[in-house]
Design brief:
alpha+beta, Phosphatase 2c, domain 1, six-stranded antiparallel beta sheet, 12 helices, 17 strands
Length: about 475
């Protein structure tokens, strides 16, 4: 049960029963091909939607950037969708960190389909039709009254309305996440049995911010304190197996939680009677081999009412949080040369931190979404910023933007290429990664996972089957 795929059906011999079965199932294959064509057309339509960004770039409201690490295919995905749900004051954001053999496909599928499910459920729920502008006007009118009793009543009304908004959007997130996970289970183009993805997503409508989180990606708010200094507020908890509540649920479902001897800081989820797949998170889309043993896709929902001190929200995969603190992240974003370059600056900072802190470990994929809460403060030309990002992307030496110091662990030109080739040949288990105590109140911030799952698949050896058939 430790493997998620059987490779025996690949390249069957001409006279073998597998070959006959292959011809019998030709209709099913053609059906799958038609399904793939339909999905491709639907993706093309999605990519043409105005206000929807999923590739490296920026708008007046957001900056997004992803970079492949040294582990293979980039399994991270991201999205910013402005005017979400046909509402001019609403935006949807998300980052998704795939893992397993088809993690990149799962992450992209969730990126494309989850917002559609949220939007359709929202439009179909008349109870969730919210006019934020009218609410804000009525609340301000109530607060302007002189009597303290009226002020107290207005404050209570505001709390009640915020609670109603939160409950509506919470129900929306729960329904959409459930449907999304069920759809992955029956998807025909890829297997999610031992592949999955995390997701940290948000809907911002006016001053209301609701976040749905599954896995160990994270959302952090950059806000100003009483001294007008930029400070970080963590909006989500990394849902890892070492959290007592998560570990208790997994063990009640007969799943096992423990860390390997060579990486004691990384707790993983294992099957009851098999040392696989070793998943380094307690919640995820997909990974159906563990869904009967404590892994869930139910999101943790949080709410925040934004104020004029709040400047931006950063969503990022664990490739960033494994090497940078919340404070470091908000400082990089706030000091970026322009808002258009904020996400790229943060990713490059994380890559340098990986090379410096964990030189024997392969750099993880990184994906970042920076959502700016007051677009009026942005006096940078979006068109010019996009040109800067495009020109920087074409630069093979990956020069650092102004204002960010390059660490001594990075190289340029031939030295960098030589270092990358050496990193490719390194074994992930060569040296135990350094572990630093964060000292924060969030108990899920500990540990650096080199890989999200330790699953290995059986290899198909056609020569072996040929030898068996040739034997008398």
């Amino acid at each position: 049960m430790g493997s998620c795929l059987s490779f025996e059906s690949r390249n069957p011999l001409p006279n073998s029963p597998l070959g006959v079965r292959k011809r019998k199932n030709s209709k099913k294959r053609n059906s799958g091909s038609r399904s793939s064509s339909f999905d491709s057309k639907r993706e093309d339509l999605l990519h043409r939607i105005p206000g929807r960004m999923f590739l490296n770039g920026s708008s007046e409201m957001a900056s997004i950037f992803t970079q492949q690490g040294k582990k293979g295919t980039n399994q991270d995905a991201m999205i910013v969708w402005e005017n979400f749900g046909s509402r001019s004051d609403t935006v949807f954001c998300g980052v998704f960190d795939g893992h397993g053999p088809y993690g990149h496909l799962v992450a992209k599928r969730v990126r494309d389909c989850l917002p559609l499910k949220l939007s359709s459920h929202w439009e179909g729920n008349s109870k969730s039709e919210i006019n934020v502008n009218s609410e804000s006007t009525s609340l301000l009118a109530a607060v302007d009254e002189d009597e303290e009793e009226e002020e107290g009543r207005a404050s209570n009304d505001e709390r009640d309305k915020n609670l109603d908004i939160f409950q509506d959007l919470k129900e929306l997130f729960l329904k959409a996440f459930k449907v999304m996970d069920r759809e992955l289970k029956f998807h025909t183009n890829f297997d999610s049995f031992c592949s999955g993805t995390t997701a940290v997503t948000l809907i911002k409508q006016g001053q209301h911010l609701v976040i749905g989180n599954v896995g160990d990606s994270r959302a952090v708010l950059g806000t100003r304190d009483k001294n007008n200094s930029i400070t970080a507020v963590q909006l989500t908890v990394d849902l890892k197996p070492n959290l007592p509540k998560e570990a208790e649920r997994i063990r009640k479902c007969r799943g096992r939680v423990f860390a390997l001897h060579d990486e004691p800081e990384v707790s993983r989820v294992w099957l009851p009677n098999n040392d696989s797949p070793g998943l380094a998170m307690a919640r995820a889309f997909g990974d159906f081999c563990l869904k009967d043993f404590g892994l869930i896709s139910i999101p943790e929902i949080t709410y925040r009412c934004l104020n004029d001190k709040d400047e931006f929200v950063v969503l990022a995969t664990d490739g960033v949080w494994d090497v940078l603190s919340n404070e470091e992240v908000v400082n990089v974003v706030s000091s970026a040369p322009s808002r258009a370059l904020a996400a790229r600056s943060l990713v490059e900072k994380a890559v340098r931190a990986w090379r410096y802190k964990y030189p024997t470990s392969k750099v993880d994929d990184c994906a970042v979404v920076c959502l700016f809460l007051d677009v009026n403060l942005n006096n940078v030309s979006t068109a010019n910023s996009k040109k800067k990002v495009a020109s920087m992307t074409k630069n093979e030496d990956h020069s650092f933007p102004a204002g960010l110091d390059s660490s001594g662990t990075t190289r340029k030109g031939s030295e960098e290429r030589k270092e990358e080739s050496e990193d490719e040949d390194e074994d992930d288990g060569e040296e135990e990664m350094e572990f630093e105590e964060s000292g924060m109140e969030w108990s899920a911030l500990e540990g650096v996972a080199r890989v999200n799952t330790l699953l290995t698949l059986p290899r198909f050896d056609p020569g072996k089957d040929q030898r068996k058939d040739a034997a008398p």
